[in-house]
Write a structure and sequence with these properties.
The complex is a heterodimer of chains A (about 500) and B (about 325).
Chain A (H helix, E strand, L loop, with lengths): L1 H28 L11 E6 L14 H7 L8 E3 L5 E3 L2 E6 L5 E6 L13 H12 L14 E8 L2 E6 L6 H5 L25 E7 L3 E6 L14 E6 L3 H10 L4 E2 L17 E16 L9 H9 L3 H9 L4 E2 L22 H10 L7 E6 L3 H15 L4 E6 L4 H9 L5 E6 L20 H12 L3 H18 L2 E14 L2 E2 L16 E2 L2
Parallel strand pairs in A: 1-10, 14-15, 14-16
Antiparallel strand pairs in A: 2-3, 4-5, 5-7, 6-7, 8-9, 9-10, 11-17, 12-16, 12-17, 13-17, 18-19
Chain B lengths: L1 H12 L11 H7 L1 H22 L32 H37 L1 H16 L2 H12 L3 H28 L2 H8 L4 H37 L11 H8 L8 H28 L26
Helix pairs in contact in B: 1-8, 3-4, 3-11, 4-5, 4-7, 4-9, 5-7, 6-7, 7-9, 9-10, 9-11, 10-11
Classes of the chains: A alpha+beta (about 500), B mainly alpha (about 325).
């Protein structure tokens, strides 16, 4: 009923708008035209409002999607291709044993409140992230750091207790953002960083506003936008209405794939389908029978027709994956063919494992649309090999985290793993999958001990292969990044190597 | 006098069969069109629900993703949903789900509520006060809210939904039967029955219940409609029967974002709910008219004639 009303309202509004616009156009036609200047304001829509604005103290990706690279910057950053590039650190050297990182910091950088950025600030930010009292969502990133030295204001030296091959990549994350000593405590509500935009205001439940930072350190970068508004709209129908009416210029992560088709033929809007790092994975409790039998897991995997599942659950947008790795990630292998859709073979495997008549189990499904729809399709696919799956809705995050993540009280679940390059979760103990494989653990250790990128990529390949045939969790698909924005808007990232909305070089064409 | 009256009363007490209501069946339908329409809808729905147990055009859980979002008549009478399931089959199976849950819940609510109502009326005093105030408390909690709490406690599923809906049916029936029963207890023939040495339980069974049957029947029909609506609400919120069992509420919830591309997915279950609730309401109103032609107002408790028919006082000299 609510939706119907919204739609009716939208139509009425656009009709009214049409009339008003018509009158305006007629009136404007008789006036002399001023030279058309390119717009410098952007209204960007998001589905979820962040609970705070400090990415170094809270996990939700929405925090970084507002602040990372706009307000906050890191020693290093990730570019649109997913590569680690210098930012507040101009250059660095890594000792041969991988235990010492020496960063040469950029000079003349100031926080929005005037505090200068130097080695002392960087050390403060890292100590805050790794300290005993830290609530940093990625605290483990900094676990390898044993001590931090600041020989001079332009040099930062990290001493590690053990090699951490991914440290540079981790330092690029929102969670490793550089924060000021004076402003760190209030960043949650009034963030102060070194980025190209300054925080202006936050109207809870509605919008966050940023303005251009006139004193941005990178003088070579002419930031085209001078005003950015993040608007939070949760209902897909309302998102469509906002885009159509021009209330919102861009929805980089549109939430309803089934409505993407409705933008076809719109002269003002473009749709851009990219990749994210969100791996939709049906996690299996490897501690429990019958899932402790590899053949059972393989049979379940072979019962799933991934392309059909993507069509049913996400309107065909998304890329099938064969392990816990996305096409964005370095060293990616397409392993969807290792256990392809083959119900007959799946049945044979089940018989071999001692379940000729199938079995029954329960799946705990969070309420997110992608999860509920995926579960329903999987239920129908499992039924074809005689396996009965009961769907138990499980409220996310509180109940899901308690049942699945903490208590490990589940048979199967579905969740999208948002963190890039997190294949190491299968080596963690304890972790909710309950997967133990010494060979896999050894590979993950090797990655940490290697600083050579090519060698790392090869090891990542081996790790992917193990997961693809062992299926400790059933890899399903990578969520697409469904972007919808104004045709004249340029510079938004089509892909999402890390959840973000990087706006420094977004601009309007005249 | 009292003794002789007591002799005549049992017959009078069951007096729903008054002369005015012995019209031929066909005339009853014609004189009460809402009743006829309500009964027709209800019977048709029950028939569809029962049919779905043995036959639907396609298995309602069968997904044919290649044929997703087909318009009505393009594939199946009512088209297919986002998974390529047949909407007509889902609607039929959903009818069984809705009706069986609603009927079970109302049956439980009626049984417990009536028991509480007549017990309170028979005992009065502290017991009645406790029962009725307890009902007031239950009544004060919004139905969907109490249903959600119970559902979360019992876990989603048929049992949870039935109990959740039954719980808020209890005070409704307790109030209706309680106030009706109190009026009966004030009658002379009850006094006579007491004089004859009958206990409260026997009087309740022999005299009170038969005389308050009509308002209960009317209330059952109306509450069935409400129960269907609540069940749909619960499953809309994801608290009803879990998939793959189709429910009208979930069909409606799933259809939300497809409204722009596949409006029939929302219209079909929406209409089903409207028609069903309308059917039960018409049935309830029609029954009220039929069983109590003197009750003018639409709302409020209406009772069948409580006056015993005039019988010759055989004990008179």
């Amino acid at each position: 009923m609510k939706t119907l009303l919204v739609i009716a309202g939208g139509r009425f509004r656009s009709a009214t708008l049409g009339i008003i616009l018509g009158i305006t156009v007629v009136a404007a036609g008789s006036l002399p035209h001023p030279a058309e200047a390119a717009k410098t304001a952007l209204v960007l829509g998001m589905n979820i409002e962040p609970a705070g604005l400090d990415p170094t103290v809270a996990a939700p990706v929405a925090v970084g999607q507002v602040t990372w690279q706009n307000i906050f910057e890191g020693l290093v950053t990730i570019d649109r291709g997913g590569r680690v590039v210098p930012q507040l650190a101009e250059s660095w050297t890594i000792a041969r044993d991988g235990l010492t990182y020496r960063f040469n910091l950029r000079q003349g950088v100031r926080f929005h409140d005037g505090e200068p950025f130097d080695a002392g600030t960087a050390r403060f930010a890292l100590d805050r992230a790794r300290g005993a009292a830290s609530v940093n969502p990625q605290k483990r990133f900094f676990a390898a750091i044993q001590s931090i030295e600041t020989p001079d204001p332009a040099t930062l030296v990290l001493h590690l207790s053990q090699p951490a091959g991914n440290l540079l990549y981790w330092l690029a994350w929102p969670a490793a953002s550089m924060v000021g000593t004076r402003s760190a405590d209030s960043d949650k509500t009034a963030p102060v960083g070194t980025g190209p935009f300054k925080f202006s205001s936050w109207t809870k439940g509605d919008r966050v506003e940023l303005v251009r930072n006139p004193d941005y350190w990178n003088a070579s970068l002419k930031v085209p936008l001078d005003h950015v508004t993040f608007r939070f709209i949760g209902d897909p129908q309302a998102e469509v209405a906002a885009l159509r009416s021009g209330d919102v210029d861009a929805f980089p992560e549109f939430a309803a794939p089934e409505l993407m088709g409705s933008f076809a033929g719109d002269p003002d809007l473009v749709t851009v389908i990219g990749n994210t790092e969100l791996k939709v994975v049906a996690g299996v409790n490897n501690r429990r029978k019958p899932f402790n039998d590899k053949r059972v897991r393989q049979a379940l995997m072979m019962a799933i027709d991934r392309p059909a599942l993507i069509t049913g659950a996400w309107s065909g947008y998304g890329t099938a994956i064969g392990s816990h790795y996305t096409p964005n990630d370095r060293g990616y292998l397409d392993l969807t063919g290792v256990l392809p859709y083959d119900p007959d073979k799946a049945k044979a495997l089940l018989s071999e494992a001692g379940y000729p008549d199938g079995f029954s189990f329960t799946i705990k499904v969070p309420q997110m649309t992608y999860a509920t729809r995926t579960a329903e399709v999987m239920q129908a696919m499992f039924a074809q090999i005689g396996v009965t799956m009961t769907i138990e809705p499980t409220e996310f995050p509180a109940k899901w985290v308690h049942d699945v993540f903490t208590e490990h009280d589940f048979d199967m679940t579905i969740v999208a793993h948002a963190e890039p390059m997190d294949i190491d979760i299968y080596a963690r103990d304890p972790y909710y999958f309950g997967y133990r494989n010494p060979a896999f653990d050894a590979l993950i250790r090797q990655i940490d001990e290697t600083t050579d990128a090519t060698a790392q990529d090869r090891i990542y390949g081996e790790a992917q292969k193990i997961l693809a045939s062992d299926v400790p969790a059933l890899p399903l698909f990578v969520m697409p990044k469904l972007g919808v924005w104004q045709r004249k808007l340029q510079g938004l990232w089509p892909d999402e190597p890390i959840p973000s909305n990087v706006l420094a070089d977004v601009n309007w064409q005249p | 006098m009292p003794r002789s009256a007591a002799l005549s009363e049992p017959a009078a007490g069951r007096a729903a069969d008054r002369a005015g209501h012995r019209a031929p069946a066909s005339r009853v339908w014609l004189r009460h069109p809402p009743l006829a329409l309500g009964a027709l809808i209800t019977v048709a729905l029950a028939a569809i629900a029962l049919l779905s147990l043995v036959w639907t055009p396609v298995s309602p859980a069968r997904m044919q993703i290649a044929f997703r979002l087909q318009a009505p008549l393009a594939r199946g009478l009512l088209g297919t949903d986002q998974f390529g399931r047949d909407v007509l089959s889902m609607l039929m199976a959903g009818a069984w789900n809705s009706l069986s849950i609603a009927a079970s819940a109302v049956a439980i609510g009626t049984a417990i509520g009536t028991l509480a109502g007549v017990a309170g009326a028979a005992r009065r005093g502290l017991i009645e006060a406790a029962l009725m105030r307890g009902c007031d408390v239950l009544f004060a909690v919004p139905p969907i809210l109490s249903a959600m709490m119970l559902d979360a406690f019992l876990g989603p599923g048929r049992r949870g939904a039935i109990v959740a809906i039954a719980v808020f049916m209890v005070p409704v029936f307790a109030r209706v039967t309680g106030s009706a029963a109190r009026q009966i207890w004030a009658r002379d023939y009850i006094l006579a029955a007491r004089g004859a040495g009958k206990g409260a339980t026997l009087i309740t069974i022999e005299h009170v219940l038969p005389n308050i049957a009509n308002p209960i029947i009317v209330q059952v029909a109306i509450q069935l409609g409400l129960a269907i609506l609540t069940e749909a609400g619960l499953s809309f919120l994801g608290l009803g029967m879990p998939p793959p069992t189709p429910t009208w509420g979930r069909m409606l919830a799933d259809a939300q974002t497809y409204l722009g591309v596949a409006p029939w997915l929302a219209i079909v279950p929406g209409c089903a709910i409207v028609v069903t609730v309308l059917g039960f309401n018409l049935l309830g109103d029609g029954l009220r008219d039929l069983l109590d032609p003197r009750a003018g107002g639409r709302r409020g408790l209406s009772l069948p004639a409580l006056e015993p028919p005039q019988t010759p006082d055989r004990g008179a000299p």
